[in-house]
Amino acid sequence: MTARTSPTARQQRVGAELRRMRVVADVSAESAAGVLSVSRSQLSAIEQGLRAVSTERLRTLASHCGVVDERYIAGLTVLAQPPERGWWEAYRGTIPAGLLDVSELEWHATRMHTVQTVHLPGLLHQGAYARAVFGSVIPALPASEVELRVAHRMRRQQVLEGDGARPYTGYVHEAALRMQFGGRRATREQLEYLCAVSERDTITLRVLSVEAGAFPGAGHAMLYAEGAVRLLDTVQLDSAHGPDFTHDEPQLTKYRSHLQWMDQHALSEDASRDFIHAIARDL
HTH cro/C1-type domain location, by residue (predicted)? Predict the structure, then answer.
């Protein structure tokens, strides 16, 4: 088992799932370490994502903890496998690691849902709009770093393209549609692009108008990424210090409820497209 110094969010998730498995089964650390033929400190490192765990050891622990859900075990073994070098690794060390974790989460998701209240969905940004978003942060980023983040954001969009396109549903508040990042022209072109991509079979865009009033989760943007099974779903929230990830079942349940609320109160797909067209025409 190779030690890591900075585990990715995905590696930390594997460790958290193994610990959850053990705690739910009321299996002590000593017992689990003995079954895996590792020391207590090595088990702790595994549960923190600091050390890798083999498929054999993962399945051994699952059996010891009485876990019989084969879909869950199989999904977890996929997460635990040494990853191939993803395209996002080319950006490691040049942009914040949290942004790379978002890329990896999107890449391995089976389906994605987002809620945006100020910015338009990052996976649907055009260059000018993304450049304006990154160019407005405080403290200001060097022009070279802005361009790196824009390039990275454009690369992220490949998860919505081609035969392997992940099904995607984006809920966008009217306020985000009216924010003019990059000026009138850039905003108009961005809105027209949203209308165009919303015609794809795998992309659904729904608008929440201001007339809907108060809504859950108004203070932050949210990505809900579905995993191989429900237990492996992940929520990512934007914050001032970077992306936060959560996968505790009570939190997942809460954010599923948020998405259900959005589904019930947002405009239909056709009405949303017409709404976006109308705003674009007024610019």
Answer: 18-71
